Amino acid sequence: MSFDLSARLTERRAAHLYRQRPLLQTPQGVEVQVDGEQLLSFCSNDYLGLANDPRINEAFVDGVRRWGTGGGASHLVTGHSAAHHALEDALADFTGRPRALLMSCGYMANMGTVTALVGQGDTVLEDRLNHASLLDAGLLSGARFSRYLHNDAGSLRGRLSKAQGNTLVVTDGVFSMDGDLADLPALCAEATAAQAWTMVDDAHGFGCLGAQGGGIVEHFGLSTEQVPVLVGTLGKAFGTAGAFVAGSEALIESLIQFARPYIYTTSQPPAVAHATLTSLQLVREEHWRRDHLAVLIRRFRAGVSALGLELMDSPTPIQPIVVGSSERALALSAALRARGLLVTAIRPPTVPQGTARLRVTLSAAHTEQQVDRLLYALGQAHKELNDE
Ligand SMILES: *Cc1c(COP(=O)(O)O)cnc(C)c1O
Fold first, then answer.
1. Which pTM does this prediction carry?
2. Which residues make up the binding site for pyridoxal 5'-phosphate (predicted)?
């Protein structure tokens, strides 16, 4: 017996599920060169246009001069530098929580947090559309794991009534493939009534939602008591890399003691943390980025409606167009690419069967004219596919 990898790959290709990595030959931005072609991109998570900001780049270079390149060790050994620490203090201040813990990436932040908080004999309840890292974390934790209906407080209540042990309710803040907001006031009320804790992963809300970019908890005005565990990532709107967990003193100390993906990994390069301090300042102060995004979101939604295409219930820069089959999503993506636009097709298992989509994302770096160009191309591409 041997692994029949080629059969698996062939099968995936036949199902229109094969993945390829577009090769970026320029820095991240709205105009990129991909596989030799100049394209206007509508699919990054660089929502505020900070991934290649000259001031953050400069801070990164300054960070390298001060701190060198490598973290050199895990945080508990000698990898925890004053640069990491300063960013943690700034993130605690930003989120209005007693403390924050810097992690290497969001995937590990979720894995480490869920597994440190619940285990055998406990319960973890998750929205069925949660990000893969949260679902994986729930499974790995060893706690009883159950998924409630998307954003459905009633469905959550039913599961809470059967929960055992310490119970953690886990949800995306902004759902990464749909763009809608978690109904946190209702979900947190259910959790609190059942003495469960709520954990929110706001990877796509930080920077975009809330007057200061404080994400969904700022948007809804929720306290540390209502959302005891708050996760954010730094590779999206912040434009750098890494993630953080914010919460009480006891939560952060517990993660330092028990979160294995935190303990057993090298700290991120301190220069990245140093650069993120500048990024955080821009996220908080440059309100025009959020204001401009709001203008683009409104313009895009009005344009898509006028084309007669279906939109999802999203007030965020994530504006997916669900087309159904993976084959059709790929064809639409290819038709846009032929018109100079980069919008990737998102297919199962990233999204549920039959809901393949173009995940259009807007960035504060886009102009209104660029959004109009996308709308025009969408109309053309749609017509072309329907005529075939
Ligand atoms: C991107 C994402 C993550 C992973 O964060 P990384 O820092 O990229 O590892 C986690 N949760 C959600 C909801 C995400 O969208």
1. 0.96
2. 106-107, 176, 204, 233
